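Posted in: Structural Biology > Protein-Ligand Complexes

Title: Requesting predicted complex, iron/sulfur cluster in pocket

I'd be grateful if someone could produce the 3D structure tokens for the following input. Sequence and ligand are given below.
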Amino acid sequence: MAKTKKKDKAGKKAKIRCHLCSGLCCRYFALPIETPEDADDYDDIRWYLSHTQTQVFVEDGDWYLNVLNPCIYLGPDNRCLNYEKRPKICRTYKTDDCELTSGDYGYELHFTSDKQMEEYMKIKFGPKVFERYDAKKRTKAKPRSKRKTR
Ligand code: SF4
Ligand code: SF4
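-- Reply #1 --
Done. Output follows.
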């Protein structure tokens, strides 16, 4: 991956171990999402998690959608096939606290499936949390049932 050595805070050359790594940092991207406030918000996140290769985590109070898709430029030898034109985010990424070197990220919350979110919502909002959607459906359905027929 990174071909140039980066300096640590003390100004010394930081030890780069990309040649020992399977390109972990090129195998996903994480985007910040709005902090969920109510059951509907959490249910939206449950929907994200219903898709393959997605996770959601919370770090320092911020929520992120994690998409576990490798970059198209990650070569079979785990090196970048687009090194000269790689995006800024890749150029500025620091190995000091990357996936390989920092170990446990210590997420406050980490959801890897919709089922996990389902259980979390039941604990947070009560075991009947999903009944509200059925109730909503019934409420919406009402006017239709009252429609006059010719
Ligand atoms: S995860 Fe760290 S060691 Fe692995 S390629 Fe990325 S920057 Fe290099
Ligand atoms: S462009 Fe290269 S460095 Fe950036 S994520 Fe893709 S493979 Fe990794």
